[in-house]
Amino acid sequence: MTLRQADSVSPTERAQERRPAKKEFRPDIEGLRGFTLLAILGFHAEVPGVGGGFVGPDVFFIISGFVITGNLWGELSTSGTIGLRRFYGSRARRLLPVSATIGVVTMIASAVLLPPLQARTVMGDGITSALYVGNYWFILRGVNYFATHVPPSPFQHYWTLGVEEQFYLLWPPVIIGAAWLIRRARRRTGVQATSSKRPYLVLLTLITVVSFALSFASTYVVPAAAYFSLPTRAWDLSVGALVALTAGQWRRLPALPAAITGWAGLGLLLLACNQLTSATPYPGTAALLPMLGTVLVLGAGCAIPSQGCGRILGWSPMRAIGRLSYSWYLWHWPVLVLAPILLGHPLGLAGRLTAVLVSGGLGWLTLRYIENPLRYAAPLRRSPGGSLALGGAFTAIAACVGVVLLVWVPAPVGRGAPAAALAVTAAPVPAGSTMDAYDAAVQQAFAQVQTAVAASVELKAVPSNLDPPLNDAGAEKGALLFNGCLRTPFQSGQPECASGDTASATTVALVGDSHAAMWNPAFQQVAQQRHWRLEMLGKGACPLLNLPISNPLRRLLELVEHCEQWRGQILARVRAEHPRLVVVSMWRGYGVDESLTGFHSYDPVWIDSLTRLVQQLRATGAKVLVLGPVPDPHFVVPICLSGYLDDVTACLPRRSTAVNESGIAAESAATKAGGGHYADLTDLFCTADRCPVIVGNTLVYIDEEHLTFEYSRLLAPVMGALADRTLAHG
Q1: How far apart are CA 392 and CA 100, in angstroms?
Q2: What is the pLDDT of residues 86-101, one digit of tens each?
Q3: Which of 86, 185, 519, 724 has the smallest count of CB within 10 Å of its CB?
């Protein structure tokens, strides 16, 4: 398919532009690719001083927008056509075989090396990456590119290929469509056709502004979408296109100002790589720094490509890295992710740098024997259809390999001897008993669990009767929503969610985020036994604490998450319904494993807010029980166990790292100051040293932080004893 240029230029201009366009090779751009790759490699290898190397994809996108738009415009201006088949064939021949080959090797290595549960997820990542929609797959999974508490996917870096391929697919039709609209508009107005770039510049500016605004807002509201999606990254590509269409103006720069401009741009890129960190909300406004730096380098290179910073970027070693950048980029991340598993230990800095060098060697082999031979094969260069067929075949093979491996990876099943289930017995304390009796009931319930926990530390093999089975644990995470009773972060309101004896005059409210919802199975059992009406009032990522957010940009989140609105509704319901007991629970990973909300667990604001909340709830006449945190393993427990079916001890976190003793002490004091009761639950999960993830035959965690329903129910007698004591206290 082609677009004729005859309706876009005047006869005089067409005659001038029929002269063959001289494609100037830009060594500085090849070197800039090399510089960008080094930044990414340094960031992923955790090299000191390169904490902002994650800006590399932005630079790559701007370069792509510059080069592709420049080529398309040059073709349109000189030949009067844009050959879509030729363009897509060239892209397919250049990119698809390499990405598919590396993807297949990565999937096979992952199936062999990774724990089965993780390998299954990786196969899904590999299949979607092979189809170049991996970036949207990561959005649907809510992947945090900077997360450290979940194992990274070996395909996580493929998100950039998704954005690039989607850009390649859409950009030529956008130019064609723009030209068609411009032609029609000029025919209607009777204006003679010209080759003015102005309409295209207006269109590109509009795309840039809209995309950046979307990216800015999404960074604080839906960070996964902001980071991975084409709409929120399109402004990088359109900025590169703007530089390409204004190259003539850049070429007019005198040598000295151009050199200063280029050095300033390179300095901004170095500043971004050095000063930005994984804690920086990104892309957001922070992405303007590498964008401006890249624009200045590209613009200066239009005038003096081999002078100024072009001398460094055009240095032959830097250009060699640039030529390797595509293959090396695709190899480096799976090598860094899989090497520690292959070697059996984490990599230090020297080990990570060695892994990077090994991936560079793999990149050279790929360039030498796959990328260049196919890219420059004369028969394929003459046949756009053949190039497309070749790329499609590689893509189909990669996707099919992923499907086969997904079926092949075995479901993890415990092979250890069957274990006895934890059994806790705790009869309700008779009415009118002394507080000593209630204290004794709590102590006896805790003691039974502590005995089982201590015995489970020595467990070696995953029991064959593990409950729930490892393969089923993930399904419980979805069940935490309890048919809408736990509101998701972007849902408002709170439905009626009563259980137990719903006709009872005694109401108990279980309130908080998902860490309150995980205790719902336990309290449902207690409510049935004691004939209470239990109400679960929960919203994900929204603790009931009134936590002010000082950063005005974080306030954008409230526009869609409605946390403050939800808190107000819950407090109003508590005041209206007068429950006898309010049980409060919340996650303590805010500010550490999650930074979106702006909350910071255990900080002074958190502690002060807890005291105020307890006072507010006590003012309604309710007794208040605040549940302390469950230990934080800092890894996804079922995935770890699926890789150590015969060595459960490899998945036992230490109490010193899983439990924040000082934070618990501060919360306990704050709760008591507000007139409530605090339950430190640590001894239900840990010995003095370790925190077993299987107790008896029961799996404790469904992921890296939430309890299984089974373990929650087993602790129902303990929760009942704690609730009874709180209600009995004067």
Answers
A1: 10
A2: 999 999 999 999 999 9
A3: 185
